[in-house]
Amino acid sequence: SSRVVEIQSQMSERAVELLGLPEDRPCLLLDVGCGSGLSGDYISEDGHYWIGMDISPAMLDVAVEREVEGDLLLADVGHGIPFRPGMFDGCISISAVQWLCNADKKSHSPPKRLYRFFSTLYTALARGSRAVLQLYPENSEQLELITAQAMRAGFTGGMVVDYPNSAKAKKFFLCLFVGASGMLPKGLGTECADGEEVHQAKFTNERTRFRNAKGKSVKKSRDWILEKKERRRRQGKEVRADTKYTGRKRRPRF
């Protein structure tokens, strides 16, 4: 329906905006799950070139019939992105990546498929570029799974949520950086009524990411040791009393 087309093109426009492409030259973009090429139309209108990948021959047939400008590839992105290193100036994906979380065949492992997708995507993107993947996650576990595999593959970045307080307009964009980590863009409609910003999860690097993701302290830190001792006390185990020396590092020699 025309409503679907309209939403699709709005999300494509937003995804390309979040890529932060240089304005002085045309770029080559990868469109993951390009379908009938609606997001590609927007990329072409914006003056850029694109290659689209999709798993559905029927959808790609529609794209061919519509005479889209981009090149089309029939492929399952869960098997990886088969392009040479550094080829793309950016990647967008509209409503597609969550499908990698489904295991259709016995042999399919969602974490492995996600990792294969993200690691080969990372390689295919030029250093300093971005991938912006709009997705409809089923739940927070799925978001965590997808984000964790992206970070494992070397990306930095995180989730940009547009209109987080609206049931209808809320949109998730996984905004990933290759190489130098930029600032995560702000989600639209994230200023609350009193001007305070909604805090978004940022994933900067592995170390702090795992602390933030689960709210735990960095391993072997004083806080971590105190939490562990407290936990063991609650389990009824004998634990030494806490002193000012707890969690202190010894000097290399006395």
Automatic annotation (TrEMBL):
Domain 18S rRNA (guanine(1575)-N(7))-methyltransferase Bud23 C-terminal stretches: 176-251
Annotated keywords: Cytoplasm, Methyltransferase, Nucleus, S-adenosyl-L-methionine, Transferase
Gene Ontology CC terms: cytoplasm; nucleolus
The reaction(s) this protein catalyses: a guanosine in 18S rRNA + S-adenosyl-L-methionine = an N(7)-methylguanosine in 18S rRNA + S-adenosyl-L-homocysteine
CDD domains linked to this entry: AdoMet_MTases
Pfam families recorded: Methyltransf_11, WBS_methylT
Gene Ontology molecular functions: rRNA (guanine) methyltransferase activity
Descriptive protein name: 18S rRNA (guanine-N(7))-methyltransferase
Organism: Lophotis ruficrista
Lineage: Eukaryota, Metazoa, Chordata, Craniata, Vertebrata
